């Protein structure tokens, strides 16, 4: 043993020997949001074996929970072990092959991200561009010009060489349309009415990101004819990050089935889905096979949390927040990014008043009020603050707290007169 110890060149980290200190914080940014006690407790429970009947039951219950939350009967409905980004990647990866055309609606950072991933997959990416703060109409998506961006802004982003802002389904005839329901970088809620039917008229699949909206704004996957829908756990669901619900319609599954097992993804050519993990296989085919213990164990904690998240998320919590911030009341006028209608109920963007540095305000809130509020993201950096009121955090008490804290910040943070 002495000899083995003498071979160690990296000392044991002192900091890991100390107990973990986690401060109490009110997480009112765009996510993660606070986790209620019941879900915290689920995360602290002992693991189950991945093939134990209780575990399989938990997985079935989670699937039922996602079907309920998405309002879908899709069989291929599961929780991906990963973040919202992971679900975005899984959705695109399972729908697209090199050379396929995807139309991406870009009115904030999430469309940009999707376009970026699709490009890396070798897809032919066509972007439908809209000024951040605006949403797409069915006409925009079908064929009419969507590119009303203001001159002199950093929009469109410089990396976007193949910008074709004026063309939609009619011209591109894409295999997939990607659109974001809750654009958390700008605070816009995209109306989805009619988009599924429109896409299907053009033989196109509708892929929707609902990471920032699920549970806070109504979404009806089957009725709205959405083909692939994904979300995340760390926003309205108030569960820890790291598991992301996703669902594929029968149309999305059968679309590429002629490509068989050579398809890079799993849902497309569907029988390959689930080979890596028993719980996925169970959900798709009802026949569990063996998987690695590590994988099974990794799922347990996340899935137990999920199980409780669903149980805890009753009708009251799933309706839009009863109290939403009045953006004009504290930080200047509403419409921080040109937004008049379709405000996202979960994440409110408020304009940064002239002369303030957003970093001073967010740091002040953290240091003096133990509260997280975020600055802008992508096209809204330096222009807005983003305030999240999601799930158990969406209370009138928290509205009062954030308004009082912001008032305090405006009084005490330095304001440049220039
Ligand atoms: N899509 C949207 C609309 C989001 O708001 C976010 C997270 N802010 C993501 C995707 C990515 O989710 P995650 O941070 O869990 O990777």
Automatic annotation (TrEMBL):
Region annotated Disordered, chain positions: 241-262
Residues that, per the record, bind substrate: 386
Domain Aminotransferase class V intervals: 47-144, 165-248
Keywords assigned by UniProt, alphabetized: Pyridoxal phosphate
A biological process term (GO) from this entry: glycine biosynthetic process, by transamination of glyoxylate
Cofactor(s) required, per the database record: pyridoxal 5'-phosphate
Catalytic activity: L-serine + pyruvate = 3-hydroxypyruvate + L-alanine; glyoxylate + L-alanine = glycine + pyruvate
GO CC annotations on file: peroxisome
Pfam families: Aminotran_5
Molecular-function annotations in GO: alanine-glyoxylate transaminase activity; L-serine-pyruvate transaminase activity
EC identifiers of the protein: 2.6.1.44, 2.6.1.51
Enzyme class: transferase
Residue numbers of N6-(pyridoxal phosphate)lysine PTMs: 235
Family: Belongs to the class-V pyridoxal-phosphate-dependent aminotransferase family.
Name recorded for this polypeptide: Alanine--glyoxylate aminotransferase
Organism ancestry: Eukaryota, Metazoa, Chordata, Craniata, Vertebrata
Gene: Agxt
């Amino acid at each position: 043993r002495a000899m083995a110890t003498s071979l160690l060149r990296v000392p044991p980290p002192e900091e890991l020997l100390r107990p973990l200190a986690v401060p109490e914080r009110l997480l009112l940014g765009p996510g993660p949001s606070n986790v209620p006690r019941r879900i915290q407790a689920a995360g602290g429970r002992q693991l189950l074996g991945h093939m134990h009947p209780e575990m399989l039951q938990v997985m079935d219950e989670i699937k039922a929970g996602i079907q309920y939350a998405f309002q879908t009967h899709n069989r291929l409905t599961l929780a991906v072990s990963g973040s919202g980004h992971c679900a975005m990647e899984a959705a695109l990866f399972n729908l697209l092959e090199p050379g396929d055309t995807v139309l991406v609606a870009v009115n904030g950072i999430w469309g940009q991200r999707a376009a970026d991933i699709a490009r890396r997959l070798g897809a032919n990416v066509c972007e439908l561009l809209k000024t951040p703060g605006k949403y797409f109409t069915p006409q925009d998506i079908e064929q009419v010009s969507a590119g009303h961006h203001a001159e002199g802004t950093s929009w469109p982003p410089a990396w976007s060489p193949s910008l074709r802002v004026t063309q939609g389904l009619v011209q591109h005839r894409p295999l997939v349309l990607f659109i974001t329901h809750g654009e958390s970088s700008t605070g816009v809620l995209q109306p989805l009415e009619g988009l599924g039917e429109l896409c299907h008229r053009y033989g196109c699949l509708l892929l929707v990101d609902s990471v920032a909206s699920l549970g806070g704004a109504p979404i009806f996957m089957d009725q709205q004819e959405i083909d692939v829908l994904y979300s995340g756990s760390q926003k309205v669901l108030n569960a820890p990050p790291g598991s992301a619900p996703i669902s594929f319609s029968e149309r999305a599954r059968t679309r590429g089935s002629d490509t068989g097992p050579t398809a890079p993804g799993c849902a497309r050519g569907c029988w390959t889905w689930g080979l890596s993990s028993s719980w996925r296989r169970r959900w798709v085919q009802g026949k569990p096979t063996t998987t690695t213990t590590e994988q099974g164990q990794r799922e347990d904690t996340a899935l137990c949390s999920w199980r409780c998240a669903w149980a805890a998320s009753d009708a009251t919590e799933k309706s839009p927040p009863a109290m939403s911030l009045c953006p004009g009341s504290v930080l200047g006028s509403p419409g921080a990014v040109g937004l008049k209608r379709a405000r996202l109920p979960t994440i409110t963007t408020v304009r940064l008043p002239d002369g303030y540095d957003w970093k001073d305000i967010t740091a002040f809130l953290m240091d003096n009020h133990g509260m997280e509020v975020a600055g802008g993201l992508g096209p809204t950096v330096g222009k807005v603050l983003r305030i999240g009121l999601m799930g158990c955090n969406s209370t009138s008490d928290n509205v009062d707290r954030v308004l009082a804290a912001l008032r305090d910040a405006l009084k005490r943070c330095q304001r440049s007169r220039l």
